[in-house]
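Record 1 of the preview.
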Amino acid sequence: MPNREHKHKGKAALPQKLCANCHRPFYWRKKWQRDWQNVIYCSKRCFNEKRTHAS
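->
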């Protein structure tokens, strides 16, 4: 059985940010590859629930 290198390195190898709404960490997704620097919310739900008050 040949020793194969795994292409998938896991979430630890992906860039991470904190969501501006829920303050939870979220990781890079392929669908965000062109616009990663502008992504600030982890989901559509957080985007729609933008907090207007300090928590």
